C-alpha cells in the first residue's frame, strides 16, 4: 500500500521570507521550481567557460539593445523563480532594480547543460514554454550543439532548430557562429 502525502508549494514571497530570516543564505545555490526549493547542480569549469563565452559574444553583438544577465533570477509566476545561465532582457532604465524580470521582459533564456541536461529538458523547457518565454536556447555540451526553441504554446515549443558548431544562429540581426559560443 502506498501512502500519498499532501505537499504544499512554497510561493516566491515565502521563498524570499526564508532568505530574510536566514533559513536560506547567499551560499545556498537553489532556485524555486513549481513551488519547491531545488538545489542547483555545481558549475563545472567547462560549463562556466561556455556561459562566459556566450555572455561576451552576445554582449558585443547586442550592445545597448538588451540587458544580458548571467545566472540571475527571473520571476515566471508565483511558484517559479529559476536562475537561467544567461538571460537576454528588454532594456529597462532601472535595470529591473524594483523587481526581477518576468516573461514579458525576456527576449531569450539560455541554459547550458552537461549533467543537468535531463532536468533542463524535462523540467525547465516546459516551464519556460508554459510561462510564454519567446525563445529558449538549450546548450548541449555533450553533443556540442545548441537547440533553439521558439513559438511557445502551453508547455511546449512549436519550433525547434538544432545548430552544430559550423552553423550560424541569427540573433538581433546578426549571425553568430555556434563554435564561437561553444569554444568547440
Note the total helix count: 4
Strands of the largest sheet, in order across it? 3-4-5-6-7-8
Mean pLDDT value: 94
Unreliable stretches (pLDDT < 50, length at least 5) are none
Structural class: alpha+beta
Main beta-sheet strand count, sense and barrel state: 6 strands, mixed
Helix content: 25-40%
Distance between the termini: 51 Å
Concise summary:
The chain is built from four helices and ten strands; from the N terminus they run H-E-E-H-E-E-E-H-E-E-E-E-E-H.
SSE layout:
Blueprint: H1 12-20, E1 30-33, E2 36-39, H2 45-62, E3 67-70, E4 86-89, E5 106-113, H3 117-131, E6 135-140, E7 145-153, E8 156-163, E9 168-171, E10 174-177, H4 178-182
Parallel strand pairs: 5-6
Antiparallel strand pairs: 1-2, 3-4, 4-5, 6-7, 7-8, 9-10
Structure notes:
The strands form three sheets. A six-stranded mixed beta sheet has the order 3-4-5-6-7-8. It is built from four helices and ten strands. The termini are far apart. The model has no long low-confidence stretch (mean pLDDT 94). It is α+β, with helices and mostly antiparallel strands and 184 residues long. The protein has helices at 12-20, 45-62, 117-131, 178-182; strands spanning 30-33, 36-39, 67-70, 86-89, 106-113, 135-140, 145-153, 156-163, 168-171, 174-177. Helix content is 26%, strand content 30%.
